[in-house]
Amino acid sequence: MLLVVAAALVLAYFAQRLKVPLAVALVCGGMALAFVPGVGEVELEPELALALFLPPLLQASAYRTDWPAFRFNLRPILLLAIGLVFFTAAAVAIVAKLLVPSLPWWAAVTLGAIVAPPDAVAAAAVLKQVRLPKRVVTVLEGESLINDASSLVLYRLAVTATVAGTFSFGAGALQFVGAAIGGVVAGWLAGRIAIWVFARLDDTLLDITASLLAGFLAYLAAEQVHASGVLAAVTCGLILGRKQHAEFTGESRLGLQAVWSFVEFILTALVFMLIGLQLRGIVGRLEGYDVGGLALLGGAIAATLIVSRFLWIVPATWVPRAVFPGLRERDPLPPWRHTLITGWAGMRGVVSLAAALALPLKFPGRDIIVFLAFCAIFATLVLQGTTLGWLIRRLGLDKEAEGESDEDEAHARAELATASLDAVQAHADEHVEDKHADAAAELVEQFRAEADRAQTDGEHPHHRAAELEVQQRLRLVAIDAARNKLNERTDDMDAEAHRTLGEELDLQEQQIRRVLGEAGG
């Protein structure tokens, strides 16, 4: 594991320099590392992989989800997360059966269920490096949060049908609905328990520890009663995200952000490196097969995944609005560029590989299924992951997202500045003594000036954002000068005072860099 993390650090560095998606660099690095002499074959325990990686990564993605936007876009999200999963599974099953006639039908459906869902980890890893309109991001992230649940339920039903040789559609539908409801209930209960715990904790480290355990509690509790652990972790994350400003102190939120960023990076790095490291074992089990035939088969399945996504998304976007005028008025047809990007963002990842490796050893066509799952992951990550950013820029969606973000942020800043001014003015009038009136008035004037600067009436938001950036960069200059002066006093200043002043400067710098959208200094 230390070797894998060290390799991931190097790969992440070069991925940033070469502008390559991190997930692609990690998978390719893992594949190369798999054949390095002395590394040996790395076994990925499927159940452990799902239980270790999915809860925190899904919880973190759900924690950041915009709930009002998620709720407004629930219809397109469910069309992708449920409808598209079943459509893709059927398309892959038909192609696999045609190309590999010896594969039983339910085994082909199992393959379809394995590769059908785009991966939440892969989506997050790629989307972090691009700028997209908010609605597109909401739909893609919402799809990736839910589709694993529908695909894993379908996967379990298909495996059972393959092994038993029989299948009841009524029982399968009941199990699907029960798993979904059970997962949501388990996640809601885990989230409420976590909120109850947070209200009784008064320590940042304890808050962080409890937040890390919450997703695992939701996932494992749901799996214990044969419900959807994926939906449980997502629901728990949504609840914590909605309550974060009410239940966490500012110190806890800053600590949570730092710790969770580290946890996400380490787990994401391990996930994609481990995917690449599986190549050696997969190739070893296919020594008796024709290499050219396997390559064509893998290419056909990958192409089916890409094409079937568009075959579903285009009608699913157009038909409901054509049939229901009310929907068309309430939610007009999105630009074709949004539909194109939504169709192209279908990267697969750890869930597909873990599900394939979890197949029983005597499952019909197991080696071929595992190989095809790996091909689907590799092809979609490399082909779609590396071209998604280029396509977004080519279509101009990054500029559209920038303007959208500027407008929303400008209005929000104006509202917050006005609320701050009103509160300070009211408190000063009621509680400040006459002898301190001048000091209070001085502060009120500062807040009034900030509120006036934040107003956007008659001014383009993009111009206001440019002015704000100039101000923030001047503040960075001041902070750098203060830090240099502080460093000069390192040897002749009290250590505690030095540390306190340094922390104040660090917090100010972090706040400014977040406003500027920069990761660090």
Question: Helix proportion of residues, in percent?
Answer: over 70%
CATH architecture of the largest domain: Up-down Bundle
Structural class: mainly alpha
Q: What is the fold named in CATH at topology level of the largest domain?
A: Na+/H+ antiporter like fold
Give the averaged pLDDT, no decimals.
84
Number of domains: 3
What's the SSE pattern? HHHHHHHHHHHHHHHHHHHHHH
Report the end-to-end length measured between terminal Cα atoms: 29 Å
Task: Report the count of strand segments.
Answer: 0
Strand content: under 5%
**Tell me, what's the shape?**
globular
What is the makeup of the main sheet? none
Number of helices: 22
Radius of gyration: 26 Å
What's the CATH class of the largest domain, please?
A: Mainly Alpha
Instruction: Identify low-pLDDT runs.
Output: none
